[in-house]
Amino acid sequence: MSILVLLVPPRARLRAGVEPQPQPAPVEWRYVLSSDGRSATRQGSAAPSLLPRASSVVAVLADADVGWHRITLPRAPAKRLRAALVGVLEDALLEDAETMHFALAPDARAGEPAWVAVVQRPWLQAQLATLEAAGLTVERVLPSAAPATGADAFGHFSLAQAQGDGDAALRLVHGDADGITLLDTQGTLARSLVARWSEQAPLRWSASPAASSAAEAWLGAPVAALTDEERALAAAASRWNLRQFELAPRLRGVRALREAWQRLLQPQWRPVRY
């Protein structure tokens, strides 16, 4: 089964003294198309209406756009579960809880510790609406990386574009059983944390191609080159799906009807329409 993986551009962050402005949807979307879900068949960027079609469409969010919280999952009916999550997480959130979207880990069980992913809801809704307006049904929304355990613990380096004329900064995202941590590599904090993490468990080190040299020099060890598209395709194999609660995908029957109608509108079906 073919899969189209879309890389959602990072959400714009506010700067001090700057009034918030609506963030427009990207004109072109980066994507990777896979015929088997494991290796890339094609990749590039295109306007939503020109993106290649596939059996399944997923969207992958940037590391900085997903917050992580580990809580004891409240025992609440499905219709009241989101409100219960707000009650538990409200004091830990950096933004208004009513503007945030929550998603539970695939194996979450009431009364047990569970990871909750948190995303800014209006922004995510706008991204999905842009794609749906172009006839794409996004079945799953995924984090680039999620908390990992054992041999799955990782560290990935990339270059974060600096504001103004500054040089791009080397940034590290680390994931293990304690969650996801994003760090700038300047200063001593990152080095002390990396030393501690390396003692706790073996880490899979990787870096985007543009950051590989700087990452190896900073780490003092080789790292595997891993493109954003390769990371996104790997994320598509996870069991996560952030489309929960108010962002749950529409019924499959509605989707099938819309796709059948779109096929009927194609030129070769014109005699049938008549």
Characteristics of this structure?
five-stranded mixed beta sheet, 26% strand, single chain, alpha/beta, 274 residues
Which shape, going by the Cα principal axes?
globular
Helix-and-strand structural type: alpha/beta
Residue ranges: pLDDT <50 for 5 or more in a row? 16-20, 252-259
In spatial order, strands of the major sheet run 3-2-1-4-8
First-to-last CA distance: 33 Å
Summarize the main sheet.
5 strands, mixed
Rg calc: 20 Å
Count of helices?
7
Give the beta-strand count.
13
> What string gives the helices and strands in order?
EEEEEHEEHEEEEHEHEHHH
Q: What's the pLDDT, averaged over the residues?
A: 87
Estimated helix fraction? 10-25%
The fraction of residues in strands falls at: 25-35%
Compact overview of the structure:
24% of the residues lie in helices and 26% in strands. The chain has seven helices and 13 strands.
Give a description of the structure:
The protein has 274 residues and is α/β, with parallel strands linked by helices. The protein is built from seven helices and 13 strands. The chain has helices at residues 81-89, 121-133, 189-200, 212-219, 228-235, 252-264, 270-273; strands at residues 3-7, 29-34, 42-46, 56-61, 67-72, 100-104, 113-120, 140-143, 154-160, 169-176, 179-184, 204-207, 224-225. The strands form three sheets. It has a five-stranded mixed sheet with strand order 3-2-1-4-8, with helices on one face. A five-stranded mixed sheet has the order 11-10-9-12-13, with helices on one face. A three-stranded antiparallel sheet has the order 5-7-6. The two termini are 33 Å apart. The model is unreliable at 16-20 and 252-259 (pLDDT under 50).
